[in-house]
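G., the chain you wanted modeled:
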Amino acid sequence: MRPQLPSASVLLLWVLASTVPSGVAPWLSLEVLVECGRRPLMDGISGSRIVGGDDAPLGSWPWAVSLQVHLVGVEFAHVCGGALVSENSVLTAGHCATGRMDPYYWRAVLGTDHLWKHSKHTAKRSISHISVHPEFNRQTFENDIALFQLRSAVRYSDYIQPICLPPAHPQLYADNRTKCFISGWGRLAEKGKTSSVLQEAEVEIIPSRVCNGSDAYGGLINANMICAGSPSGGVDSCQGDSGGPLACHYPTANKYYVVGITSFGLGCGHPNFPGIYIRLAPYRGWIKSQLLLSSSVTASACTALTLSAVGMVLLHTS
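Predicted structure as tokens:
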């Protein structure tokens, strides 16, 4: 495992980005300074259904994470999806941690398309800390977002890559060619079996006024939520897909951005009731504060380890 020094570098880049005057470069952000949102093994933009759909090719969504819990009598069980946003941080839904806030019972599996058939490209990490948004509401699913910190950083490869956080100014990335996708290991049908192989789907962003119609969610959807799927149904996330990313490809930047996190929905694939995703743009500040905290802790640990090593050298040479 490589040293944790890159985390300190990320911290420095964030500080630099945050000090640039907005009037000079309003688009400058961490996503510009740090490589993210790339799919090295995929040439084009593709997607198929999760509910009743096809398997995702290995490496097609390199930021996809399976968050698993150790259960009695079972080694590990998949609970939720997640999106890798840094070498040691996974973004997911807040409700995934309900009743399971002890990081000891969790692990993250990255770099695989199959939950139980792992390859040399697969990475497994225990969890050191779980941060749930302080205003998460379990009844309404408002602020349904959390960040899992990995105990040790992962090494980026063709199969493991971070996805970019949503742009601070989405209008600068607006493009009619933008396409959005969901992925996960959830159920293939509303009352069907879960999938051991990662599934993918291209979805349509549905306007809130349509999603909030009297024949749909009837005003339940607020400004911090996104409706995505198909108005006619049939393409949707399902149980077990919670926490997974709503990833959109912006041609102008040629990158994928996580614009939403899979949160809830009425059934799976019902007409007029698409999946609901937490809109991440309003939470950039909270996400960055958590990432900065984890980066500073890691940097401090590296410094302490370095000083300790120097002390040992001095002790043995005195």
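Confidence is low (pLDDT under 50) at residues 1-33, 299-318.

Shout if anything looks off.
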